[in-house]
Every structure is written in structure tokens, then in C-alpha cells.
Design goal:
heterodimer, A: about 160 residues, alpha+beta, Thiol Ester Dehydrase, Chain A, 6-stranded antiparallel sheet, two-stranded antiparallel ribbon, 8 strands, about 35% strand, B: about 140 residues, 3 helices, globular
Amino acid sequence: MKQPEPVQVIKKRRDAALADLVGGIPYIGFLGVTFERRGDELTATLPYGEHLVGNPILPALHGGAVGAFLEIAAQVELGWQTYWPQFEAGATGPKLIPKTIDFTVDYLRSGLPRDAYARAVVNRSGRRFASVHVEAWQDNRTKLFAQATGHFLMPQIEV
Amino acid sequence: MNDMDKKAKVARQFIAAIPHSRALEMRVDTVHAGRAELSLPYNERFVGDPESGVLHGGVVTALLDTAMGTAVVSHPQSMGGTATIDLRIDYMRSATKGQRLRAEAECYRVTRSVAFVRATAYDEGDEPVAAAAGAFTVEGVKP
């Protein structure tokens, strides 16, 4: 019988695949977005930074920064799921991030000056198009401060 | 200085005071009575696809959102600040690498609590990069 892979080997491969997918995108680095992985589940974090503020009096996060954070979370989730079988097969190489067709953001509360988190769900992914929903919160997981739905073009390149 | 010039000045100061807009090096090109034109320079730090070098959609979102907010605060009926309630963006094509990104926003209707805004983003060409429609809060309405 085939032995299961050692846990360190699996973790190392998956973490490397995630770093590969996210690491090459300068704008993700500029905003400061990071991703945490539990198996195949991803959580995006937007660590608070002064450069993200849109209303210095309140203060509140900029609507554009929040929108961008949600779009990144949605895109990376879709890319991650699309390439997952290839990652698991040990394939490496350049990965295309899905292109956004449209993105609708629902601002539910003003973004407080602290870290924000987001998780995305791919509601449908076909050969050409995908629909992704993403939810973001700060202190309380059940009190979303923003949510969004977007449509994406599926990346057409094999790893 | 008449009322509209004052509003335009306030709108410029409003943008200059926003850290995120400063971080993206946004500039107010024109602002007048519910219309605003903003732009930002190409920057390699804002790239979304390293292969092609094009700006990330999030940069387009931030510029459109700011231009739309500026259009709201510059509207003759609006008396205060604003916040985004809802924003939809359609991406028609990628912004050309190395070119400035520009957004034109128009606040076409203000009610007691909501401002309705549309906007279009361009690079240095005439074909739109993205289009946006949004609803913004209104704080204090001039009758």
C-alpha cells in the first residue's frame, strides 16, 4: 500500500504554491494583503496602515482600498481553486490571475482603523466565466463591514 | 471667490487630506458643480499582472471611488462629506502600461440622503478602461 505523504511535505508544497500565486503581484504588496491557509481554505488579511485611510477625521478606511482588498481576495481564491489540482500534482510555473469583468461592492459599515479580514466563495466557475462572492469583517465575523460579488474571466493557461 | 470656486477649493483640499489618495499619487484635474476629473501616474508598485505590467483593478477602483466622492461633495446641493454605499465597476480593458489613469465622474442626482454617481476611467487613449455606477451618502442638503 502507498504511504500517505508526510505532513511537512504537503504543507511545504501548498504554502509554496500560495506564495507563488500571491507573491508576484506588486499591488498586493503595496496594500499589505496577506493570506492564511487552512487546507484549501484561504483567509485574506488587510493589516491596518495609515496609507489605507479615506477619511482622516473619523478615521475610516478608503472605499477604494476596501474594494481593492475584496477584489484581491476574490481573485486569489478563484486562482487558488482553479490551480489547486495542478498544485496537488506538484506542478509549478507561471500562473495567470483571473481577470475581473465586473465587481460590485456593498459598503455595510465604515471600515475602522484596524485589521480587516475576508473570505471568498466561488459560487460558479465554468470554462470561461466565474462568479465569486466575498465577505469582509473586522472585529466580529458575523458583522460584515463590506461584501462584494464579481465576475471573472477564467485564466486560460495551464501551469 | 464665488460659491462654486469655494466648493472646488474645498474639494481639492478634501482629496489632498486623504492618505490613501496621496499614497496612490492622485491629482484633482478639474472639479465643478457635481463633476470631477482625477488622475494618477503609472507606478510599478500598483501593478496587478507582472507579466503585462498593467495596473491592478483595485487602483482603478480607488481612483473611480475618489473621483465619484469628489463629484458628490462638489455638487451644489451637497453640504458635507460623503461615504460610498454601493459601487459597481465594469472593466472593459486593461489600462496601458506606463500611461496615466484618468477618471471622469458625474453626480447626476442628489436626494435628501443619497447621491447617484457615474464615472468612466481612461488611460491616455479615448477608449474607456472601466465604467462605474455608485450610490453615496449625502450629509446635509441645501434646499
